[in-house]
Specification:
Structural class: alpha/beta
CATH superfamily: YqgF/RNase H-like domain
Radius of gyration: 14 Å
Distance between the termini: 18 Å
Strand content: 25-35%
Order of helices and strands: EEEHEHEHHH
Number of helices: 5
Shape: globular
Length: about 140
Protein backbone atom coordinates (compact mmCIF):
# COMPACT_ATOMS: atom_id res chain seq x y z
CA UNK A 1 0.00 0.00 0.00
CA UNK A 2 1.15 3.53 -0.77
CA UNK A 3 -0.26 6.99 -0.15
CA UNK A 4 -0.15 9.84 -2.65
CA UNK A 5 0.36 13.46 -1.60
CA UNK A 6 -0.87 16.32 -3.78
CA UNK A 7 -0.21 20.05 -3.75
CA UNK A 8 -3.01 21.54 -5.90
CA UNK A 9 -2.17 24.87 -7.49
CA UNK A 10 -3.78 27.10 -10.09
CA UNK A 11 -1.75 25.63 -12.98
CA UNK A 12 0.21 22.78 -11.42
CA UNK A 13 -0.22 19.80 -9.13
CA UNK A 14 2.82 18.60 -7.22
CA UNK A 15 2.81 14.84 -6.66
CA UNK A 16 4.56 12.77 -3.99
CA UNK A 17 4.34 9.06 -3.15
CA UNK A 18 5.05 7.24 0.10
CA UNK A 19 7.28 4.21 0.34
CA UNK A 20 5.53 0.86 0.83
CA UNK A 21 6.13 0.98 4.60
CA UNK A 22 4.46 4.43 4.87
CA UNK A 23 7.55 5.99 6.46
CA UNK A 24 8.92 8.40 3.86
CA UNK A 25 7.54 10.59 1.09
CA UNK A 26 9.28 11.17 -2.25
CA UNK A 27 8.35 13.78 -4.82
CA UNK A 28 7.79 12.22 -8.23
CA UNK A 29 6.48 14.89 -10.61
CA UNK A 30 4.65 18.12 -11.29
CA UNK A 31 1.56 17.92 -13.48
CA UNK A 32 1.16 21.13 -15.50
CA UNK A 33 -1.89 22.47 -17.31
CA UNK A 34 -2.40 25.50 -19.52
CA UNK A 35 -5.65 26.67 -17.91
CA UNK A 36 -6.82 26.50 -14.31
CA UNK A 37 -10.24 25.02 -15.16
CA UNK A 38 -8.89 22.25 -17.41
CA UNK A 39 -8.60 19.28 -15.05
CA UNK A 40 -9.45 16.29 -17.25
CA UNK A 41 -5.84 15.53 -18.23
CA UNK A 42 -4.62 16.26 -14.70
CA UNK A 43 -7.10 13.77 -13.23
CA UNK A 44 -6.20 11.20 -15.91
CA UNK A 45 -2.49 11.51 -15.05
CA UNK A 46 -3.24 11.15 -11.34
CA UNK A 47 -5.20 7.98 -12.12
CA UNK A 48 -2.23 6.60 -14.08
CA UNK A 49 0.07 7.27 -11.14
CA UNK A 50 -2.40 5.65 -8.72
CA UNK A 51 -2.31 2.44 -10.77
CA UNK A 52 1.47 2.56 -11.32
CA UNK A 53 2.29 3.03 -7.62
CA UNK A 54 -0.63 1.00 -6.20
CA UNK A 55 -1.96 3.97 -4.23
CA UNK A 56 -4.78 3.34 -1.76
CA UNK A 57 -5.20 6.80 -0.20
CA UNK A 58 -4.61 10.41 -1.18
CA UNK A 59 -3.57 13.37 0.98
CA UNK A 60 -4.43 16.76 -0.48
CA UNK A 61 -2.96 19.98 0.84
CA UNK A 62 -5.59 22.43 2.14
CA UNK A 63 -4.55 26.04 1.56
CA UNK A 64 -5.71 27.88 4.66
CA UNK A 65 -4.96 31.51 5.39
CA UNK A 66 -2.51 32.19 8.21
CA UNK A 67 -5.46 33.00 10.52
CA UNK A 68 -6.94 29.52 9.74
CA UNK A 69 -9.76 30.87 7.57
CA UNK A 70 -10.50 29.38 4.18
CA UNK A 71 -10.46 31.56 1.08
CA UNK A 72 -11.21 31.10 -2.61
CA UNK A 73 -8.24 28.75 -3.12
CA UNK A 74 -9.61 26.45 -0.38
CA UNK A 75 -13.01 26.33 -2.13
CA UNK A 76 -11.32 25.32 -5.40
CA UNK A 77 -9.28 22.70 -3.56
CA UNK A 78 -12.41 21.18 -2.01
CA UNK A 79 -14.00 20.99 -5.47
CA UNK A 80 -10.86 19.23 -6.70
CA UNK A 81 -11.11 16.82 -3.74
CA UNK A 82 -14.67 15.89 -4.73
CA UNK A 83 -13.61 15.28 -8.34
CA UNK A 84 -10.70 13.13 -7.18
CA UNK A 85 -12.93 11.02 -4.92
CA UNK A 86 -15.55 10.54 -7.65
CA UNK A 87 -13.00 9.67 -10.32
CA UNK A 88 -10.66 7.44 -8.29
CA UNK A 89 -12.96 5.96 -5.64
CA UNK A 90 -10.21 6.58 -3.05
CA UNK A 91 -10.42 8.43 0.26
CA UNK A 92 -8.90 11.90 0.03
CA UNK A 93 -7.66 13.31 3.34
CA UNK A 94 -7.14 17.05 3.71
CA UNK A 95 -3.88 18.32 5.26
CA UNK A 96 -3.18 21.88 6.39
CA UNK A 97 -0.50 23.07 3.99
CA UNK A 98 0.26 26.45 5.54
CA UNK A 99 3.92 27.34 5.07
CA UNK A 100 4.78 24.23 3.00
CA UNK A 101 5.69 26.39 0.00
CA UNK A 102 7.87 28.56 2.24
CA UNK A 103 9.54 25.45 3.69
CA UNK A 104 10.02 24.01 0.19
CA UNK A 105 11.63 27.23 -1.01
CA UNK A 106 13.91 27.32 2.05
CA UNK A 107 14.97 23.69 1.48
CA UNK A 108 15.85 24.44 -2.13
CA UNK A 109 17.79 27.53 -1.10
CA UNK A 110 19.78 25.45 1.42
CA UNK A 111 20.39 22.82 -1.28
CA UNK A 112 21.88 25.49 -3.51
CA UNK A 113 19.19 25.46 -6.18
CA UNK A 114 19.30 28.74 -8.07
CA UNK A 115 16.36 31.09 -7.55
CA UNK A 116 15.28 30.98 -11.21
CA UNK A 117 15.12 27.15 -11.09
CA UNK A 118 13.18 26.85 -7.82
CA UNK A 119 9.76 27.37 -9.41
CA UNK A 120 10.37 24.15 -11.37
CA UNK A 121 10.44 22.10 -8.15
CA UNK A 122 8.50 23.97 -5.47
CA UNK A 123 5.13 22.20 -6.00
CA UNK A 124 6.66 18.73 -5.94
CA UNK A 125 8.62 19.52 -2.77
CA UNK A 126 5.50 21.03 -1.17
CA UNK A 127 3.58 17.81 -2.00
CA UNK A 128 6.38 15.83 -0.36
CA UNK A 129 6.17 17.97 2.80
CA UNK A 130 2.36 17.60 2.90
CA UNK A 131 2.60 13.83 2.60
CA UNK A 132 5.50 13.53 5.06
CA UNK A 133 3.54 15.51 7.65
CA UNK A 134 0.58 13.19 7.21
CA UNK A 135 2.77 10.07 7.45
CA UNK A 136 4.48 11.36 10.59
CA UNK A 137 1.17 12.10 12.32
CA UNK A 138 -0.21 8.73 11.27
CA UNK A 139 2.80 6.86 12.70
CA UNK A 140 2.45 8.73 16.01
CA UNK A 141 -1.20 7.78 16.47
Amino acid sequence: MRIMGLDFGSKTVGVAISDALLITAQGIEIIRRKEENKLRQTLARIEELIVQYEVEEIVLGMPKNMNATEGERAVLTMEFKEKLERRTGLNVHMWDERLTTVAADRAMMEAGIRRENRKDYVDMIAATLILQGYLDRRSNE
